[in-house]
Specification:
Elements: H1 5-13, E1 15-17, E2 23-25, H2 26-29, E3 42-44, E4 47-49, H3 62-78, H4 95-108, E5 113-114, E6 119-120
Length: 124
C-alpha cells in the first residue's frame, strides 16, 4: 500500500504530545509531503548506484556485446546525445567484470600479447 498525496495532508493533522503534555500537530513541527522516490536506495563503495540489467541472446558473447555497447556509448557521449553529470559514470559489471579480471593475468604474462594495445599478435 503506497502513500497518496492526501495522506501527507492528513499526516500534518496527526498530533504528538509536547513536553508540557499539550497536543501539537505534526504540521507545526515539519512539512510532510508526498515525494516519488526510487523503490530502494543502493550504495556500492559508499556511492549511490543504479543498475541496468541486460539479458543477452543465446550465442552472444559478453565481451563482444560490451565492446559494441561501449563504442555506441562513446559515440552518443561525443555527439552529446546523452550527458553524464559530474560524479556520474558508467561501469560494466557482472560477467564482464569477472571475465576482464580473469584476462588481466593472462594478458600481462603472455609473450604473444602487445602490451600497449592489449591485443593478441599473430604467430607465424
Amino acid at each position: 500500500m503506497g502513500m497518496k498525496r492526501e495522506d501527507a495532508d492528513q499526516l500534518r493533522e496527526v498530533t504528538v504530545r509536547s513536553a508540557t503534555g499539550q497536543p501539537v500537530p505534526l504540521g507545526l513541527l515539519g512539512h510532510p509531503s508526498y515525494v516519488t522516490t526510487p523503490a530502494a536506495i543502493r550504495t556500492e563503495n559508499g556511492e549511490l548506484v543504479a543498475f541496468v540489467y541486460v539479458d543477452l541472446n543465446p550465442g552472444t558473447d559478453v565481451s563482444s556485446y560490451v565492446g559494441g555497447a561501449q563504442r555506441e556509448l562513446d559515440r552518443a557521449l561525443g555527439a552529446q546525445e546523452i550527458r553524464l553529470e559530474p560524479g556520474e559514470r558508467i561501469e560494466w559489471t557482472g560477467q564482464y567484470q569477472l571475465l576482464a579480471a580473469a584476462q588481466q593475468p593472462l594478458i600481462k604474462n603472455s609473450p604473444g600479447c602487445d602490451q600497449t594495445q592489449r591485443q593478441w599478435l599473430p604467430h607465424w
